[in-house]
Amino acid sequence: MSAEQNQKLAELLELLKLNNGDISKLTQEQRKEMKDYKFWKTQPVTRLDESVDKEGPIDRKKTPEEISELPLPLLGDFEWCTVDVTDQNQLEDVFLLLNENYVEDRDSTFRFKYTREFFNWSLRSPGWKKDWHVGVRVRSSKKLVAFISAIPVDLKVRENTVRSVEINFLCVHKQLRGKRLTPVLIKEITRRVNRCDIWYALYTSGTVLPSPVSVCRYTHRPLNWGKLHEVGFTHMPSHATRMQMNAKYALPEKTNTDGLRPMEEKDLAQAHQLLEAYQARFDLVQTFTKEEFKHWFLGNDEGTENTEKVIFSYVVEKDGKITDFFSFYSLPFTILNNSVHKELGIGYLFYYASDADLEYSDRFSKEATETLKKRLCSLMNDACILARDAKMDVFNALTSQDNTLFLDPLKFGPGDGFLNFYLFNYRAFPITGGIKEDKTYDTQKRSNVGVVML
Asked: pLDDT tens digits, residue range 31-71?
């Protein structure tokens, strides 16, 4: 936890102390933060002021039989539901809830525009369970007003492999944000997962909760600077012209890497093996089965025609050997209150791997670093070109993995957002996130976060 985050919590606690513990005298935002902290104090997570001296589970392992079969109680106006995402009508309910109520930027200018194809890819990975797609409906109208999901993942935390779930798409209808549904949703998804004998989870948030194991920064590489400027995503620097900015972010017409082509099913075995070798360098990674690898990198269209493509994966083949691969996914923004543009095409860097520095025993040596940097700069420049050709307007990446080696050279600018990584019921030493204390890119220590969350 950063000094800034500790200071924020300390200020809240001091305000509460000055008001003799009367939370009503805090602002609405401060009250929410205090309630959130109080809730997390009841959960098996690392405390904000805790110094970790040993990694491992927090609570003793229970048995599924010790977990209640009954869902948690809800206020009388609401009822639990299990959302069947294979049913188009129920999937439409999730689609509408998230597209109308999920995360917006602070200026309420952009909102994630999730597609049905994206949900089919992200919610139905191998081993997915219908029971882990949890919703809350209004009892009278059956309107879906809250949702949370989990998918199974095998996490490797340094040397330990932990059977876990990845929690995502937590959303509560805007008009119900004061009903404290979020803690109940978290408890209910925990109950359902525990009933399946899984006791750990990975989740992320843009807000500070107890207690991040790592923090990464969002970065953005403009692909269509003119449009980004018109919708307020980017701003014109002083002493610069539109022509100069367009020229600054112009990309070559074609990719440059010999042997670069879309990934095919015949590439899966080699690409999977390459990813495993590359990911071994990081402290927090997801390990993929062959089935999972195929799903995440070739998609889950199931032969459906006229669908919007979600995942884009490419390999580099030389003399029959896969030496590199990279992937990115599409998750557009809806542009709010703009008379000209209604949608912003967004590409997100997903997983990649290269054999460039695998022969070196020390990945941080000068020679290994320069070798990998050169390869990644070439690959990611091609990724930007391919994303542009897929009608994306900006290419986003975190400071995770080895990304800080290419962010500056390829003109990725630091964003305002930060992503905090959390482990539920598992205590771990801090993991570097690719940023320094002053929030600039760390090209020396880089990042030891190898997992990518959607």
From this structure: 555 556 678 888 999 987 788 999 999 987 789 999 999 99
pLDDT band at 303 (very low <50, low <70, confident <90, very high): very low
454 given a catalytic annotation? yes
**432 is a domain residue:** no
Which among 164, 183, 205 is the end of a domain? 205
Checking if the pLDDT of 334 tops 90, the result is no
Distance CA 223, CA 245 (A): 11
CB burial of 203-218 (b: ≥16 within 10 Å; e: otherwise) equals: bbeeebbbbbbbbbbb
Q: Are residues 175 and 275 in the same domain?
A: no
- pLDDT for res 289: 97
Query: What residues pair up with 137 in beta bridges, in sequence order?
Result: 79, 144
Inter-residue contact 424 to 219 (CB < 8 Å): no
* Same domain? 421 vs 310: yes
The answer to whether residue 434 is domain-embedded is: no
| Alpha-carbon span 200 to 190, nearest angstrom | 9
Query: Which candidate, 298, 350, 352, 309, places its Cα nearest to that of 328?
Result: 350
Structure tokens at 361: 């025993």
Residues 285 and 306 placed together within one structural domain of the fold: yes
User: 333-337, long-range: CB within 8 Å, 24+ apart, which pairs?
Assistant: 333/110, 333/111, 333/112, 333/113, 334/99, 334/110, 334/111, 334/112, 334/113, 335/109, 335/110, 335/231, 336/104, 336/108, 336/109, 336/110, 336/111, 337/109
Residue-range definition of the domain harbouring residue 71: 55-205
d(CA 425, CA 56): 8
Sequence-distant (6+) residues with CB within 8 A of 231 are 109, 110, 335, 338, 341, 344
- Answer whether the bond into residue 108 is a cis peptide, omega within 30°: no
Q: Is residue 304 helix, strand or coil?
A: coil
**Quick one: 153 and 6 in the same domain?**
no
Query: Which CATH number fits the domain that encloses residue 226?
Result: 3.40.630.30
CA distance 92 to 88: 6
Same domain, 379 and 283: yes
In the chain, how many domains are there? 3
pTM for this model (two decimals):
0.89
Distance of CA 131 to the CA centre of its chain: 22
Q: Let me know whether 101 and 219 are in one domain.
A: no
Same domain, yes or no: 269 and 194: no
Among 9, 15, 336, 454, the one annotated catalytic = 454
Same domain? 191 vs 326: no
- Supply the angle between the helices 3-18 and 28-41 in degrees, to the nearest 10: 110
